[in-house]
Design goal:
alpha/beta
């Protein structure tokens, strides 16, 4: 009699199914764990990048705050010095006026001393006039007024002194706009549109601001130049003009509204005209936007390479004698990458300053 086989629920098929199911669960768990880790790593990297950028912004902001505080401290110190000087001058004026009154009273009681006392009174009055002039210069050291946008210190670093000051203003076509495309577009428009070009208006404002800072006891001259150089006021070539002549200075500045930028740039002709002045200037302010495009004579070709422009610049600056500071105000212009470096070397070699102002200056 055959032996009956015992039944069991855990046969081979059941174990295979359970093993496969368990393996699938483990595989799903491993895949999910890896995806979570990858996503976490990506999020951590993004957060670290944002944190680094924020920390960099904070450091830059702190540095800017320190510079602003230093500028404010310097300005406050200068204001205190000016106020103290004005107060001392005012006190001395009052004491001199009291002395004059006492001398005049004494003169009335002693006719014999009238002649000598009158001479002394005249000398004292002259001294008062000089002190009042000094007081006025302390309160406002500008030859002309200039109102900008807001209460701000317009310029630091430029040496605005000198007894014979030359201002050279570039009036070539590139002064119409900082982009080559816009220069070409504006160059073909009417003159009334060219005069209102934003870049050109800023150049005029720069000249206006410089004329407000000229020392009253100095002489000046303003030349415009493109392919040729000429004085802003007709009939003044080779002549120094006194800053103290307010009417003439205002007339020169008003002439800027009639100038229309055109043609190329010859720095050599501008510097040759400057050196024709007698005596030579002891301070030069050059307002331009790039390296020259021609030398003493017009070029033979319509286009010019960057290396040629650098050579023209070197030829022009070689004319300058030693000891004349050249302060450059460099306006923006695309397509001239060497301009800033070359003008910086000129400023450094001549003990001048290079300034590249913002779009809202002055």
């Amino acid at each position: 009699m055959a032996r009956r086989r015992s039944a069991t629920t855990f046969n081979l098929s059941f174990l295979d199914v359970m093993s496969c199911g368990f393996g699938a669960v483990v595989l799903v768990f491993l895949l999910m764990d890896h995806a979570i880790k990858a996503e976490s790593s990506t999020l951590d990297a993004d957060l670290r990048s944002e944190v680094d950028l924020l920390e960099e912004d904070v450091v830059q902001g702190q540095e800017g705050l320190v510079r602003l505080r230093n500028s404010i401290a310097d300005t406050d110190f200068q204001m205190v010095q000016a106020q103290g000087l004005a107060s001392r001058i005012s006190t001395e004026i009052n004491s001199l006026q009291e002395l004059i009154e006492s001398l005049e009273n004494e003169a009335l009681s002693s006719p014999a001393r009238v002649a000598s006392l009158q001479a002394e009174v005249r000398a004292l009055r002259q001294k008062i006039k000089e002190l009042q002039t000094a007081e006025g210069q302390t309160k406002a050291e500008s030859s002309r007024g200039f109102i900008g946008e807001g209460n701000r210190q317009y310029l630091t670093g430029l040496n605005l002194g000198g007894s014979h000051i030359m201002i050279l203003l570039d009036v070539s076509a590139s002064m119409l706009a900082p982009e080559l495309v816009n220069v070409i577009r504006l160059r073909n428009m009417e003159d009334k549109v060219k005069i209102q070009a934003a870049k050109w208006r800023r150049a005029i404002a720069m000249v206006e601001w410089l004329t407000t800072q000229l020392p009253l006891e100095s002489d000046y001259q303003i030349y415009t130049f493109n392919t040729q150089a000429a004085p802003l006021l007709e009939g003044t070539r080779g002549k120094w003009l006194p800053v103290s002549s307010q009417e003439q200075l205002d007339q020169a500045v008003s002439k800027l509204g009639e100038v229309i930028p055109a043609q190329g740039t010859s720095l050599e002709n501008a510097l040759r005209a400057t050196l024709d002045m007698s005596p030579w200037p002891d301070n030069i302010f050059l307002i331009t936007d790039g390296l020259p495009t021609q030398g003493r004579t017009p070029p033979r070709r319509a286009t010019i390479r960057q290396e040629e422009r650098r050579r023209l610049f070197a030829n022009a600056t070689a004319l300058l004698p030693r000891g004349i500071p050249v302060n450059i105000i460099l306006a923006p212009m695309e397509g001239d990458p060497w301009a800033a470096a070359e003008f910086w070397k000129l400023a450094k070699a001549s003990s001048g300053t290079l300034l590249s102002p913002s779009r809202d200056w002055p």
